[in-house]
Write a structure and sequence with these properties.
elongated, Cytochrome oxidase complex assembly protein, alpha+beta, 3 helices, Coa1
């Protein structure tokens, strides 16, 4: 019986076959470049990896990062409150109120360039209790607005 020969595909790479007792040639690893050792002109894929610094300097910056993220969150949430329709409507109502114009004067607006809106503004559940500082041409004062909707289908009080 004749066994068919395995045909080699044209263009397929041939791998070198080494006997079991002979190791394939190895390239020696070169050390990683050190600091101030000059420009790296050649990069080899089999070079030694640089040593990992085990010092934890980033632990010192973690509190600063947490404070910065917290301050950014507070600023974003406050900006969301200050640009809401509830705040705009209360400012409009304050500007058109004769009693408020008598106390504060004309040109009623926020007391500061970046107003701080304190309190809860939960329009979904019908709970709004906010306060912020306003000023007019005469004086300034703290404006407080409170609105409660007892249940889903009732009107706001």
């Amino acid at each position: 019986m004749i066994l068919p020969r395995a045909k080699r595909r044209v263009g397929a790479p041939r791998l070198p076959i080494f006997p079991r007792h002979v190791q394939p040639p190895r390239r020696n690893l070169i050390p990683a470049p050190r600091q101030n050792s000059g420009p790296l002109l050649e990069r080899r894929s089999d070079r030694e990896l640089p040593s990992v610094n085990s010092n934890r300097r980033w632990w010192r910056t973690l509190p600063f990062f947490a404070v910065a993220v917290g301050a950014a969150m507070l600023g974003i949430f406050n900006y969301q409150k200050s640009s809401s329709s509830v705040v705009s409507s209360t400012l409009y109502a304050l500007r058109t109120s004769p009693r408020a114009r008598e106390i504060l004067g004309e040109e009623i607006y926020f007391a500061h360039k970046m107003p701080w809106i304190s309190g809860e503004m939960n329009q979904l559940h019908g709970r709004i209790d906010i306060s912020f500082w306003v000023k007019g041409s005469k004086t300034q004062g703290k404006m407080r607005f409170r609105s409660i909707r007892p249940d889903r289908m009732s009107y706001v009080r």
